[in-house]
Amino acid sequence: MTVPDNAYTVKHRVTGYKHGVCPVGGSYNYTLVGDTTVSAADFYDAPTPNVNDITTSIYSSNFVPGFNSDMVVNLENAGTTVVNTTLTVQIDSSLTFVSALPPATSVSGHTLTFTVNSLSVDSAENIEITTNTPSSASLGTALYFTANAPLANDSTPNNNADTLITTVVGSFDPNDKLVNRPYNVIAGKEMIYTIDFQNTGTYQAKNIVVVDTISSLLDMSTFRLLSGNPALPIVSSKDGRRLVFNFNNINLPDSKTNEAASHGNFVYSIQSQKSLPIGDTIYNTAYIYFDFNSAIVTNTTTNVISTKSGVSIPEVSNTSNIQFFPNPTTGNFNIIVPITTNGWQISVTDVTGREIYSQTELGSKKLINCHIKSADGIYFVKVINTTTNENVIKKLLIRN
After folding, report:
1. By C-alpha distance, which of 123, 198, 191, 118 is closest to 159?
2. Beta partners for 287?
3. Which pTM value belongs to this model?
4. Which residues pair with 361 in a beta bridge?
5. In 3D, which of 34, 30, 36 has the Cα closest to residue 9?
6. 45: helix, coil or strand?
7. What is the per-residue DSSP string for 255-287?
8. Residue 75 contacts by C-beta under 8 Å, 6 or more apart in sequence?
9. pLDDT at 212
10. CA 36 and chain centroid, separation
11. Given 3.40.50.300, 3.30.365.10, 3.30.710.10, 2.60.40.1510, which CATH number is that of 50-172?
12. Which residues of the chain carry a pLDDT beneath 50?
């Protein structure tokens, strides 16, 4: 690395359960003039002894009627001791369990258990679970998965369990982006992003580059690359928050020559900032480049900071007595709001954050009628006071 002549302080970030030992004071100071080479600027961090900490996270591919889908439960030993645990995974009751790698210790209905022994420090284990989505499944149907790996005397037990909420999808763009969190998330939660790509051209792609600009609401220091297929990408950073994922010499076949081998993906995790205000929104879009072709732009994932993941933003002030009925509904429902001099904005989104309906009403109207044509599943109705921006989000279940 080449830098201009100046005085510099070199330090590094201590992460996890470690403390800096070398150098004393935690940094080196240099005054660089002319052609100067710096060497032996070594850092050493020592682990904090006897810390138990295991983290659990879930991510998946798309769930398409009639096809198998893969889900991964990632267990990471973030502490400083070798740990043993029993992982319990609950798959959605509408799916059929196909297989697991490693094999489950036991299978009881839709509950799987896995015995995990001697998970060493700074290591991780992926449990790959394959399920089948029935061909009769309606698009938009909500699917629920949970994973729990309890550990005695865990220093942060709140990350021992994880929940995945997603939906059944139909034909889709093979170049897409998924997030393992529902529309509403708690600040500080780990977000797991999966970027899928496919070479739908007429010749193999030698190099693939994916550019992803990370929201300022996410903590870059927590970034972790979890997996890659058919190989792990090389990750570089530009402009601080712009990550570049390089698949060099991947030679990905085109879909007409070899459909099965024309797909690829990678998965990374990153935590949202811990002190975000309610209502802040995290957007994420990826740009995929096949060789020298123009970028293919993925969908944009959307997550809103809430106090309770996947449920609602608290009802405050003149939104506190808003009522919805009927719920469940076939798509026609009513909202009772207070009569005010202000207006009301109604927005309905699915569990991926995609808006499917919007409506604006005057504040003089107490009963608002909404008509939605959508598949069975869980949706979120957001009612906003257009003057004060106070809002409430309520969960709506559609059953046709």
Report:
1. 191
2. 211, 297
3. 0.57
4. 344
5. 30
6. strand
7. TTT-TGGGEEEEEEEEEEPTTPPTT-EEEE-EE
8. 54, 55, 56, 85, 87, 116, 119, 124, 125, 126, 127, 149
9. 94
10. 44
11. 2.60.40.1510
12. 308-320
